[in-house]
């Protein structure tokens, strides 16, 4: 079933207003019992009774999210932050809803508000960096990712830190700064060798940075990790039908022989390597 919860925020002034409190609790019980359509009506009635209560608006918006009504959810969440601009969770929900509705510019505004309210939480920085990266605001993305790395370095698990370095490396790649990109992508691969996306990004960065002396070993590694992904049936950052084209593409760009490309590509077809069909 769908689980609803009352969300309180330490900076919210006041509590649920009169009958609205009972309606919110009733809506939660209905939702937990699978009566989701009736629950949505109850939450909407609570919002009518308490139009200036941020908690009511948040819970009504959260209910609409669970009921797959994103436009209604956004309306309630935006009302929540209008009533209380310091309601961080509502800013995060607004960002999620706006992202899904294809409005990244407004996503940025809500994430910046969330960061202002809790500057020590790295997830919002990573989310903001990704949004800025998609908007091609790469210089801003770099600054945000660098702050995130400072927050997670030495504190978060290695795979989390590796992911932050991967995102920063990709942003530097977009900025055509191969030296900076390579430094962070190598860090990502070192921290988490199982992150195949980082391996593929490092391969591309070395290709663009014309680091021929390192490329053959890394190309073999990219092919190997992609084959592993195919065998396990999991998505690979290198599509299976592109495996053979990686070394051939390198041969087109680098001062190396076609025989080298053919030799590397042949490795992908060795017996026991699994089905490489798309």
UniProtKB/TrEMBL annotation:
Q: Which GO terms describe its biological process?
A: protein O-linked glycosylation
Query: Domain of life here?
Result: Eukaryota
Citing just one GO molecular function, the answer is:
protein O-acetylglucosaminyltransferase activity
TPR repeats (start-end)? 20-53, 54-87, 162-195
Keyword annotations for this protein, in alphabetical order, are: Repeat, TPR repeat
Tell me the leader sequence span.
Answer: none
Query: Can you say what this protein is called?
Result: Protein O-GlcNAc transferase
Q: Which organism is it from?
A: Octactis speculum
């Amino acid at each position: 079933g769908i689980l609803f919860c009352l969300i309180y925020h330490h900076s919210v002034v006041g509590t649920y207003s009169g009958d609205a409190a009972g309606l919110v609790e009733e809506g939660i019980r209905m939702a937990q019992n699978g009566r989701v359509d009736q629950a949505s009506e109850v939450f909407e009635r609570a919002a009518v009774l308490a139009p200036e209560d941020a908690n009511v608006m948040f819970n009504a918006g959260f209910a609409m999210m669970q009921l797959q009504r994103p436009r209604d959810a956004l309306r309630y969440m935006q009302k929540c932050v209008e009533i209380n601009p310091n309601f961080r969770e509502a800013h995060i929900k607004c960002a999620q809803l706006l992202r899904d509705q294809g409005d990244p510019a407004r996503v940025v505004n809500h994430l910046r508000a969330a960061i202002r309210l809790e500057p020590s939480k790295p997830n919002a920085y990573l989310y903001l960096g990704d949004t800025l990266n998609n908007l091609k605001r790469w210089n801003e993305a770099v600054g945000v990712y660098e702050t995130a790395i400072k927050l997670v370095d030495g504190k978060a698990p290695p795979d989390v830190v590796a992911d932050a370095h991967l995102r920063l490396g990709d942003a530097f790649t977009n900025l055509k700064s191969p030296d900076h990109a390579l430094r962070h992508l190598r860090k990502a691969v070192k921290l988490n060798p199982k992150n195949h996306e980082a391996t593929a990004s490092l391969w591309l960065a070395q290709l663009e940075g014309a680091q021929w002396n390192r490329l053959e070993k890394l190309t073999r590694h990219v092919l190997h990790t992609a084959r592993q992904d195919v065998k396990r049936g999991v998505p690979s950052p290198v599509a299976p039908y592109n495996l053979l084209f990686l070394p051939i593409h390198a041969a087109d760009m680098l001062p190396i022989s076609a025989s080298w490309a053919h030799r590397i590509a042949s490795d992908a077809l060795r017996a026991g390597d699994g089905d490489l069909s798309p």
